[in-house]
Amino acid sequence: MKLAIVTAYPPSKVTLNEYAYHLVKHFRQKQNITELVLLTDKTEGEKDISFVEHGCKITIKECWEFNSYLNIVNVTKAINQVKPEAVLFNLQFMKFGDKKIAAALGLMLPLVCKIKRIPNIVLLHNILEEVDLGSAGFTSNKILQKIYGFIGTTLTKLILQADTVAVTMQKYVDVLEFKYKATNVTLIPHGTFEVTKEKPEYRIPKGPLQVMTFGKFGTYKKVESMIEAVEKVRANTGLDLEIVIAGTDNPNVPGYLAKVQNDYKHVPQVRFTGYVEEYEVPTLFKESAVVVFPYTSTTGSSGVLHQAGSYGKAVVMPDLGDLALLVKDEGYKGEFFEPNSVDSLALAIEALVTNEAHRMNIAKANYKAATAYPMEKITNLYLQNFDRIKTLKAPQRKPVLQPATA
User: Fold this and answer.
1) CATH node for 2-191+373-391
2) Lower CB count within 10 Å: N or C terminus of the chain?
3) β-strands 86-91, 270-274: how paired?
4) Fold of 209-371
């Protein structure tokens, strides 16, 4: 099968590019895929396809740009040129832009594929019904929230024109089936990027205990509370703790981390890594004692939690939204804290850095949860769904009528 994937892709800074990297890495190893065609956003650097594993041919066509009104035209043109047998869309609502018209036009592409009778699946990482628009940084204005809600409903109806919409959490399936009466929604878990054959080393390297957070910061992910919480833990325990803030600004909040770095320059042992390349991710997690999620809201299944699990790490997270659901649905564990409470966050961090047995128990539980859904299994689920769609789209043969015998 010649499979096209419409997505942002490293070194892109557009959301979900890291997820696409791991999807491609595992799809490439499937025997029944003859070619992968990546229909990606335009970037200055070369696309990263330097996988160790051998596999099928990969073709890259950079054919869309964030906030361009021509994306629907240019991606359609690319699809016409490459003639894929199936198309997978790696999406969330602001994938093609944060301007309403540009975003909406891009999200019409699954409908285009359906009209062209090309089997297509949308991987939808979040649904607007489960996003706290105020905490997530969209708007706190009640009237604007209603407008966003109307727009979100309209965009969801567009996305549901796909042959199949895959979501990563059972609650998303329930909402889409109840509110939109959708019959084409399926659950395919987020999956874990890297699951090594060797079990992780749960003991921490010598030196300062690294308390790490990873992501794009400035909206509902803010690091001030984490820095202040670690300061409290240092004061209470006397432990040698290093704060590691790994990642970049959220595109909607440029300059956020630079301001934080300046505001907290008096705090010792705070390290800002900047953008983390894919090859640097394993070291980042392996050297960490604890992974913290300083969130006030959630907007989808957490890739960072799955990564933390795959490296056997204990986590500290707020007991809310999709993080709480992942604990219930997939078996992840952690120390929980009250969002917006520095004291609560400090107590959660302290519980892990002062009790090695407790930290290791949580780390082992998270590794077990992560290994249940490796990307190898996730990509197989997509291929099974494509086979089902192809069968449904195949023209039905009419029975041949035999002439009546005398």
Assistant:
1) 3.40.50.2000
2) C
3) unpaired
4) Rossmann fold (3.40.50)
Global pTM? 0.77
pLDDT in tens, the chain (406 residues): 999 999 999 988 788 888 999 899 999 989 899 999 999 999 988 888 877 567 899 999 999 999 999 999 999 999 999 999 999 999 988 888 878 888 889 999 999 999 999 999 999 988 877 665 555 445 556 676 576 667 778 889 989 999 999 998 888 999 999 999 999 999 998 888 776 666 788 888 788 999 999 988 988 789 999 999 999 999 999 999 999 999 998 877 889 999 999 999 999 999 999 988 878 888 999 999 999 999 887 655 567 888 888 899 999 988 776 677 777 777 888 999 998 899 999 999 999 999 999 999 999 999 988 888 888 899 999 999 999 999 887 776 555 556 655 4
Contacts 24+ apart (CB under 8 A), 173-179: 175/127, 175/129, 175/130, 176/127, 179/129
The CATH 3.40.50.2000 domain(s) of the chain lie at 2-191+373-391, 209-371
The closest of 85, 84, 62 to 74, measured between CA atoms, is 62
